[in-house]
Design brief:
Number of helices: 11
Structural class: alpha/beta
Oligomer: single chain
Helix content: 25-40%
Number of strands: 8
Distance between the termini: 43 Å
CATH superfamily: Thiamin diphosphate (ThDP)-binding fold, Pyr/PP domains
Strand content: 5-15%
CATH architecture: 3-Layer(aba) Sandwich
Radius of gyration: 19 Å
Largest sheet: 8 strands, mixed
Shape: globular
Order of helices and strands: HEHEHEHHEHEHEHHEEHH
Length: 304
């Protein structure tokens, strides 16, 4: 950790609110991966005084095996379940060294957030650790073979929920869970709306305590989709209200960022082979769930 005092982390480049990207084009992401634009925005907004803490997930592979790294910034790889606790430890180490101008980012997938890492994240929320937790949600354990997670939507194919027996359970509501912890900031973000993500990253950077951004991250491999359609899919998820864009401050004030004229959820589903085996009744059930979730969100927004 003493290397942080020297040239390991360069100083800010002085540009007004923007920093150079250091991500190498030689990374190992799949074609059309929804994560890489977000990593670039993280680098642009947060700047070089940033440390990424990455558990077992797609990005741990994308970055490359030691001693190689495509990130161009300090990256600490950690166990699957320890993104939040490891990031908390890095923050504590920096504080001990008197380094307070470095942003610590836990960069984890939905499996390492909704499931395996939820206990560590909940504990970090209870302690209000001064870290930025960025969950990129591609709705399954993509890195380990496309197994279902609790972020996988209903009636979706994965290798552990085959087409004949698709997932029957609803997707876990991460925002409501973290709002119950009264953390300073929670926000959803999407590949299709980069300026919204940029603004939310700036908001999170300027705050202290635990900040969590839930990023909707299309995966062409796991979703059985054309890599060309990743931005379109991300936009349709918002326009169909499958994935609303909103913020939550101090666990109480819910703010809606976009109120689209809704398109049918079927428009979003039809571009994904993972929903290829859906029946009309299942599609209707998905639409009903989307409508119910939106009404629940609107009640919280209006109560603010």
């Amino acid at each position: 950790m003493n290397h942080l005092q020297g040239g390991f982390l360069p100083h800010r480049d002085g540009e007004a609110g923007a920093h150079k990207e250091t991500l190498s084009p030689g990374h190992l992401a799949c074609a059309g991966c929804g994560l890489m634009p977000a990593v670039k925005l993280l680098q642009q907004v947060l700047g070089p005084r940033t440390i990424f803490v990455v558990p077992a997930c797609c990005y741990s592979v994308i970055d490359g095996a030691y001693p190689s790294s495509a990130t161009g910034m300090p990256v600490m790889h950690c166990a699957f379940e320890t993104a939040a606790s490891s990031a908390s430890g890095v923050r504590a180490g920096l504080e001990t060294l008197g380094i307070r101008d470095v942003t610590v980012v836990a960069l984890a997938g939905d499996g390492g957030t909704f499931d395996i890492g939820l206990q560590a994240l909940s504990s970090a929320a209870e302690r209000n650790e001064d870290i930025l937790y960025f969950c990129y949600d591609n709705e399954a354990y993509m890195n380990t073979g496309i197994q279902r997670s609790s972020a996988t939507p209903r009636f979706s194919w994965t290798t552990t929920t085959p087409e004949a027996i698709p997932k029957a359970e609803r997707k876990k509501d991460l925002g409501a869970i973290l709002a119950a912890h009264r953390i300073p900031y929670f926000a959803t973000a999407s590949l299709a709306y980069p300026e919204d993500l940029r603004r939310k990253l700036k908001t999170a950077k300027e705050m202290k305590g635990l900040r969590v951004i839930h990023y909707f991250c299309p995966c062409p491999t796991g979703w059985k989709s054309d890599p060309r359609h990743m931005v379109r899919l991300a936009r349709l998820a918002v326009e169909s209200r499958v994935f609303p864009l909103h913020e939550v401050f101090e666990g109480e004030c819910w703010v809606l960022n976009m109120d689209p004229q809704p398109v049918p959820a079927g428009k979003y589903l039809e571009l994904q082979g993972r929903f290829g085996g859906r029946t009309p009744d299942q599609e209707a059930a998905i639409q009903k769930e989307v409508d119910e979730n939106w009404k629940r969100l609107m009640r919280k927004v209006k109560a603010c």
